[in-house]
């Protein structure tokens, strides 16, 4: 369910060194029951860590027909289904990347860790009030909405850290930003249960999985 996986199929051993550093040595590969390795190619001349960008460029994140397959690494599962090795696991049900709310501003807030820091500060400041008013993460998820003044506070905080929104970015990503702040607050007050209860409500792959499995409903209800 979702999109092609990263393509990691190696076994590594962690070896501590006297100076408190460590080295990880690849000692083996693992294989699926059909005999295929899902590890994608790596080594000299291969941009191993930049492949995600390549996937975006050739359209794989939006269209399953753009997912490359290597016919020389074709395998059959134990029940006869055709699968391919050498590049991750291709999902049975494809869910495209949702680009409608994406923006450079959202990416900068997320990858710099600013959203996490801001959510932590808000949760730390308002913890007693939130715990008293909402009591549980389920009630918080259902009843709490990010107020406008909190979004303005985030904008000021981001600007102070050198991150400013380009024209249209904030409007485009406002709901996604608000959801991540809310989820971050919940995690710092109620733990991972609160975080995922909120974040998964807007996760396309999770919503699709619920529909496919016939379990659609409030998160945590099943």
What general form does the structure show?
Answer: globular
What is the tally of helical segments? 8
Unreliable runs: none
What percent strand?
A: 5-15%
Write down how many β-strands occur, each being a DSSP E stretch of 2 or more residues.
4
On the 0-100 scale, what is the average pLDDT? 91
What is the oligomeric state here? single chain
Helix content: 40-55%
Order of helices and strands: EEHEEHHHHHHH
**Rg (C-alpha, Å):** 21 Å
Distance between the termini: 19 Å
What is the strand arrangement across the widest sheet? 1-2
The biggest sheet amounts to: 2 strands, antiparallel
Structural class: mainly alpha
What is this entry, summarized?
With 222 residues, this protein is mostly helical. Helix content is 43%, strand content 9%. Strand 1 and strand 2 (22-29) form a beta hairpin.
């Amino acid at each position: 369910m979702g999109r092609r996986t990263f393509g990691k199929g190696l076994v590594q051993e962690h070896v501590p060194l006297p100076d408190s550093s460590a080295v990880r040595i690849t000692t083996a590969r693992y294989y699926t029951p059909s005999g295929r390795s899902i590890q994608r190619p790596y080594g000299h001349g291969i941009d191993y860590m930049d492949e995600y960008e390549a996937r975006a460029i050739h359209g794989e994140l939006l269209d399953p027909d753009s997912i490359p397959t290597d016919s020389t690494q074709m395998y059959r599962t134990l029940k006869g289904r055709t699968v391919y090795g050498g590049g991750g696991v291709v999902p049975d049900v494809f869910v495209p990347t949702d680009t409608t709310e994406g923006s450079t501003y959202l990416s900068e807030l997320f990858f710099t860790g600013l959203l996490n820091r801001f959510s932590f500060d808000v949760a730390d400041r308002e913890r007693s009030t939130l715990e008293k008013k909402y009591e549980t993460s389920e009630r918080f998820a259902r009843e709490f909405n990010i107020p406008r003044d909190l979004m303005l506070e985030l904008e000021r905080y981001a600007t102070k850290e050198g991150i400013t929104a380009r024209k249209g970015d904030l409007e485009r990503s406002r709901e996604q930003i608000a959801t991540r702040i809310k989820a971050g607050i919940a995690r710092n007050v109620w733990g991972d249960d609160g975080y995922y209860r909120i974040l998964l409500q807007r996760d396309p792959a999770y919503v699709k999985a619920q529909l496919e499995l016939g379990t659609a409903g409030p998160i945590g209800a099943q």
